[in-house]
Amino acid sequence: MAGRGGRGLVPLLAFLGVMAYSLSMAVVTPALPQIQHGLHTSPAGAAWALTAMTLSAAVATPVVGRLGDLYGARRVLLAVLAVATAGTVVAALAPTVPVMLAGRVLGGVGGGVFPLAYTIIRDVLPPARRAAAVGLMSSMLGLGGAVSWCLAGPIIDLLGWRWLLWVPVIGLVPGVALAWWIVPDGRRGGDSRAPARVDWWGAALFAAWLVAALTALTEGMDWGWTSPGVLGLLAFALAAAGAWLWVEGRVREPLIDLRLMRVRGVWTANAASLLSGYALMAGGLLFPLLVQLPEGTGYGFGGTATQAALLQLPASVGMTVAGMTAGLLDRRVGSRVVLLGGAVTTGLGYAFVAVEHGAMWHLYVGGLARGIGLGFAYAAVATLVVAAVPPEETGVATGINTLLRTVGASLGTQVSAVIVVAVPGEGGFSAGFAVSAAVMAAVLPLALLVPRPGRRRARGTGPGAVPDPVAVVR
């Protein structure tokens, strides 16, 4: 059990864990060509170094969140950080692609630090400081991307790509020690409750349909959207999803309480996370691709990979700063307004580059607006979910929210790639930017549907009753 001084360091530990995971996810992207060469594989094989961790994180995040709700954040956080550290070390030392992928799958378990961090913040900080802490936590995504792009070039050039994979260990190893020292122990729910059980059947079915669906989305461009592989994966995903819904509706202690997902403050924030994830990765594909296309196309800039990375840097910094300030704005105007402002800012940035992208400064302006807007939006949806659910459901609810952001990101990458291929020439980029602007416009009605302050009204009685959004949601 942490003392008074130790408790003050708990949010710092949460930030450190999230930052380390964000780095471990992001550092692979700039090193993909070197990984391909170093491990003697194809571009698709190297890309799986990123895909494997994304799929693993997508499955692990809600499962780890649920385990944290049942058994307490401390013991689950220690296990997650230990597994993620081991996976990162395995990936850095990997002599072959299969070993690399095994390490990245283990590293993806680190995605569980997000719901655990939100749970820790809710347990430790007073209500007046939670929104600021949640906003800062969400900003770690942008900061991790910015740091990875800044470090990638010098480390790869001077030390080699493997050293880039060691960078996250700098945060993960001390994170394990700090978690052991300062995170309060204790299980949620009190001693009066019967020991909770994990819905392992639900977890297995959830993992099955999610991995199948995300793999189909990831490989659709390479295999073909009507190929037997993609269609088979989608069919399997639908069948497994149906079985999962059937199980979750009948077990006493489901992995994910589907009634909770129907609470208005939760489903609106989850839908906004899905769309915001799309907007994040759509730009992550369209902006660098446009910069690196040859000038001979008439609309490309003939830039290098370094120039493409520098274009991403202001957006990442803007996202970080916006996330840090979102909590202060939340206390003044509420999460609904912060989400509205983030959606409008991101949409305007995309709308601008859909019309004007003939000069690099156009891309910088649009990209910066995108980064700032998404920083506000990510912070707002996380705050809304934390405020809308009972404390014992914080981990699984924020885990699902993070998962939907990942699914949206996969859609953003794949749909934008299809648009660029389907619409020839410059029009493909204009259409891709315009679709992203429209996606963020769809966030506006969701923000307006977020519940206003009101009294807590319990739906039903007894164990498992789902409350309406709490009064702190504004």
UniProtKB/TrEMBL annotation:
Compartments reported by the entry: Cell membrane
Domain of life: Bacteria
UniProt-listed SUPFAM superfamilies: MFS general substrate transporter
Domain Major facilitator superfamily (MFS) profile: 10-455
Gene Ontology CC annotation, any one: plasma membrane
Topology within the bilayer: Multi-pass membrane protein
Compositional bias ranges of the Low complexity kind: 464-474
Protein name per UniProt: MFS family permease
Source taxonomy: Bacteria, Bacillati, Actinomycetota, Actinomycetes, Streptosporangiales
